[in-house]
Design brief:
Layout (H helix, E strand, L loop, with lengths): L7 H5 L3 H10 L3 E6 L3 E6 L2 E7 L7 H16 L3 H9 L3 E7 L10 H23 L11 H9 L1 E2 L8 E7 L14 H4 L15
Antiparallel strand pairs: 1-2, 2-3, 4-6, 5-6
Helix pairs in contact: 3-4, 5-6
Length: about 200
Amino acid sequence: MQASIHDREALKAVSPAALAAYARRAGWQRGETYRVHSNVYAGHDRPEIIVPRTDHLGDYATAVSELIAVFAQVADQDELTIYRSLVTGDRDVVRIRVADSDDGSLGLNEGVDLVSGARDLIRSAACSLSKTQPVYRAGAIQEARELLEQVRLGQTHQGSFVITVLTPVVPPPLQLELYPELSDDILRGDEDRGMPPSSAK
């Protein structure tokens, strides 16, 4: 028996960008505009779907639920698996594992230190997006503070103790072009991320 998601707040946590990205990866292509706030997507051997472009709709949660059901059927996966992919679809996922925790548990104080260390890691990475330097004063960079407010903890994983940190996808900074005539070919792509190498995944 496959599980279905009925929690409206949980469904609203899925962003329109994540829905559109999943649809494209799964073989749908965006077509014409549907009404004011949605697009029609179609694909080979796939049912036509309507993907909202905004979550400011009264029936947004219902639309997400219906799309999850379609995605699950086409992918032959359960709806919970699809939901987990969608809810992190517009975020970078950073997983931090404790090596000496084979039973999947951790002392309370160690757990507090782990989460605090994860926050410091993300803060340092966010600060370096603005300016690279050896030491950062806490709260000194406005952009880093704003990014930290958007970071969320995801579900933990079974096995070794692992915490999941979900960070917003940060576009790469604009840089002066050394060879402008090559920029269109070299810089094209939607997989680039702005988080520096120190935030290993």
